[in-house]
Amino acid sequence: MNISPFVCHIPETTGFSPSFKSVERSYAAMGADGKYSKVMNNSWAVRGELDWKANAKFFGSHFKDKEKVNVYSLASSDGSEAYMLAISLIETLGEKEAQKFFPIKAFDKDEYIAGVAKSGKWNLMAADLRNILDLFPNAGKYLKKSEVPMKINNDSLSERTATYEVSDILKRAVRFEKGDLLEEIKNIDDEDGSSLVFCRNVLPYLESLKTATAQQVSSLLGLYMEEGSVFVTGGYDLELTDLNRNLYLRDFKHVNREKSSFVYIKTDPWADC
Q1: Is 168 contained in some domain?
Q2: pTM attached to this predicted model
Q3: Which residues are within 8 A (CB) of 266 and not within 5 positions of it... i.e. 6 or more apart?
């Protein structure tokens, strides 16, 4: 999920109800001036903050001795992130090696948007498609343009998107379900440091709704992820919450702060003792 600010004054006397019904999500947040602002969340196919190729190579190398890697995409919205991860793993590691990362388990709390993702259709703007093909020139084989556009409720970008049917390879690679973020962290299957968890650019949104905090998420990750497992977050999470500090308190360390400040590995707290 990507957060981009769209500010409009909201009277304090009116209750602003957050929208969960689209890839575009909105909520009320109080600024430093004491006024409420409306913040729009959009799920984009490719965001420049994450180096998909480099990270796919790292995942392949880091988990090379694991027969199975349990992969989770939390707050997965329309499935863009999960599909991009699947494409990057297949195109970077090869289809055979990528299989141990599948199926990616993608969860979103909203039943409607989880259903959109589960449909096997993907709405992309022309810029999205160009960015995907710039990264992975052969990725076109995973997408077939649909003659019938998919309409998503309250999606402000719908007029600028085209609908694509994803290939059977991608459909098999990702499993979409309705699921609460905190509860799904508790369900992480990680007995030997073989988990890869994506939870990106959603925490400021949850904190504004008072449904979850960076401290809660970090505490649960520390409890349910074992040494060697990998957690991937987003720039807005690190910029607008105290997630980084809380992750370090739970023994998560950056893989490479300079090259990939969004990727953490769970470490042994006694290793340096």
Answers
A1: no
A2: 0.84
A3: 193, 221, 222, 225, 226, 227, 228, 229, 230, 231, 251, 252
The two structure tokens encoding residue 8: 């409009």
| Residue 120: per-residue pLDDT | 95
Quick one: which of 225, 216, 215 has its CA closest to 246? 215
The two tokens of residue 27 are 């909520």
13, 18, 105 from 124: Cα distances, Å:
38, 24, 21
Assigned domain for 111 exists: yes
Domain count, the chain: 2
pLDDT tens digit string along 156-211?
A: 666 678 999 999 999 999 999 999 999 999 999 998 999 999 999 888 888 877 77
Query: What residue numbers bound the domain in which 30 lies?
Result: 2-42
Q: Is residue 142 part of a domain?
A: no
Is residue 24 assigned to a domain?
Answer: yes
Write out the H or E segment, with its range, that includes residue 178.
Answer: strand 174-178
Closest Cα partner for 237 from 188, 183, 197, 196? 197
